[in-house]
Each structure stands twice: as structure tokens, then as C-alpha cells.
Amino acid sequence: MYVTTSVYDGAMSEAMMGGTQPDFEFERRFFVSHPPQDLLKGSDPNVIVQTYFLAEDGYALRVRLQATAFQGDLPLSSEGKSVIETLEDSFDLCMLTVKGPMVGGTRYEAERELDIGIGIEMCLRGGKTLVKKRYGVWLDEDGWVIDLFCTPNAPLVIAECERTGPVTDLAIPSFCTIEVTDDARFSNDSLVHNPYSTWVESFQSELRNRNHDYMGGFGDNSLSSL
Length: 226
What we know:
Layout: E1 24-31, H1 37-40, E2 46-56, E3 59-67, H2 80-86, E4 93-103, E5 106-113, H3 116-125, E6 128-139, E7 142-149, E8 157-163, E9 171-172, E10 178-179, H4 188-191, H5 200-207, E11 222-223
Parallel strand pairs: 9-11
Antiparallel strand pairs: 1-5, 1-8, 1-10, 2-3, 2-6, 3-4, 4-5, 6-7, 7-8
């Protein structure tokens, strides 16, 4: 049983950010073999549709559409552009984002909110698109998001913890299999070009020869009992 204080919406509040939008994000990401169904059950996910107009060498320019706390049925077999058309009336947020390469759990990120209608039309006209269902939860002192990716990245599940500074001394939930923070294969801007379904078998073979792997240099990692 996981002890939670409230549902985490997957984003840092203005108070958490000190009233300003940071130019860097600090996060650690983990591959999840078996999603924690007790955390996901009864929770409405945010459906996130990300269209990349540039995604190369860790640099990314994308438009993100979000349907917050979506209550409809969106199978994990759903794909890119068709989801945009299906959820056109459900999107309530659109962001233009620029990112730089990940370096040791830190990545440059700058965002600007866009008109939703303009964002939809841009995404339908160009770029490569991925879709994921995002669940948020508080575990101890940290907000975590658990992303279930849709086709062609299904059945990939990634959990991530984001803070306003380096993510050190982290209590890692037991559902996290291995850390993939610095594994470029699992970045969204890589997955949009090289989807998980095309290399899942080789990765599962690789995984059988690995134990719980966590990054060093981030204080004292511990495996949480949660």
C-alpha cells in the first residue's frame, strides 16, 4: 500500500517555483516494469499529446496539448494525430517548449503558453507526435508522475520525480525498476523518432542482466517501502 497525501497534478506550482518560471528542469526518470495499479485506480489522467518540430541531439522544439483529468476512454492503442482530432474539444492547455540536452538530471527548458486552436492546427499540419496518459501522485515529500505511453510506444511506462533543484537523497518507490535519467533512448524527443515498440524485445533482454540501477552523485538514494 502506498501512502499518499493528495493527487499530484504533474507540474510544479507557482509557490514551489518561487513565483517564477525556471529556465532549467531538474528531474530523475525511471523505467517501470509493472505499473502500480493501486495508485492509478480511480484517478483521471492528464492526456498529453506532444508534437515535435525539432528533436535531434537532445535539442527539442515541441507543442504540447493537454486534456486535464480526462474522463473519457482513450485506449493505449491510440495514435498521434488521430488523438488530436478525437480530443480537440477536450484540450485545455497548449504550451510551446524549447529544450536542451539532459546533463546529469538537469535540462534547459523554456515554455510559453499558446492559443489552443492555433496549437491544434499546427500539430495537425506538421511534426511527429506521441501520446501518453499521465497520472500524478504525492509519495512522501515528492510529487511523482507516471506516464503510460500510447502506440507506438506502448507498453512503455516511465515514472519521474521533478524538483526545483537537483533531485538528491531520493526515496525511490519500489515500482521503479531501473533509472533511465541519462538514457537518451527514453527521452520523449527520442521516442517520437525511435518508438519503444521497435526495440522492446532487445531492451527486455538487456533488463534481465541488470539489477536495480540508480545514478550516483545525487546523495543517498534509498528504495522506499512505499
